[in-house]
Amino acid sequence: MTRLDAVRLDAVRLDAVRVDAAWTGDGFRTPATFEVRGDLLTPTARTDLRPHHIGGTLFPRLTDHHVHLGLIDPAALLAGGITHAHDLGWIPSVATGWLAAEAPGPTTTIAGALLTAPGGYPARSTWAPPGAAREVGGPRDGREAVREQVMAGASRIKVALNSAAGETVDDATLRAIVDEAVTAGLPVIVHAQGPGQPARAITAGATHLAHTPFDERVDDAVLAEMADRGATWISTLDIHGWGHPTAQHAIAIDNLRRFHAAGGRVLYGTDLGNGPLAVGVNAREIADLLTAGLTAVETLRSIAGDGSAAHLAPNASIGPRFAWTPAPPPADPADLAAWIATARPRAVADLPAPASPDTTDTDTTDSTTRTTISTEGPHR
What we know:
six-stranded mixed beta sheet, 24% helix, alpha/beta, single chain, 19% strand, five-stranded parallel beta sheet
């Protein structure tokens, strides 16, 4: 297999590349050929191209849906295979800088400051510097706080309902925050911790949880209502023990298993910055998702999707950056976590040129079958 070295294509024009597999959103196309068009890769069935075989598996993106970039090195996160990241709470003036095209690290979206009650979590937490939390004094202030985050570049709003660590905003304020965010076209993501807080979130109209609930067994009726309303949970399972599972880890796995079985939607997220987590694709988080009952394909959708339910269009262009693993997809789901953790970022402009015409692969035939990893056998 040809190794991807960062060699600029100054002298040799690369028309096309071929990989062993490419993620489509619901499985893999094997093999897959892409025409190089500037800094984009476009799926092609042309027979007049001479594709350079680079092997491995291509993902248009790999996303961590819950990170705190202010607590880690963004460049290291990208180097570990995460090409897209959603920062869920930091000082707005700092977080805005992560949106710049030249900023190191993954392509990023931000939530700005976490909205909370006066003195509420995380306003007094040691991990959150001044400005990372916006204390809200009532419905009018809640609406103003949402507008402030929008003006700072936020594409989602984060609310802390953590009754285990202090006061939370009241129901009227929570509803005002959600309504203002909806008006702005932004989702509301809730840190729901403490008895009844997940139910409060869904009752107020918020349909995204920043964490799988971990400190109470969520009632089946609440889970069913969340699933019926199209709720999304971000997994963040590995923060409970970091490889040494705790009682909260077991509660979270049980809640996620039942939420998923009820039809709820799950996204891969790590809460990166919270303890000794892998800076990059976290194999333990992937393994936990499988343990919670997601199939291999569902697990890959949780990290390799764009955050929506839509699949990748068959002829959609990819780039200028993508994720790549050096090996094709494993047949055994038990190998999935270790395999996806080998993902690394690649740029179209840095793909290696063919060594010579004699070594250029001329077989451009792609399988039109979308294959999926077997879901038979144990997940761990």
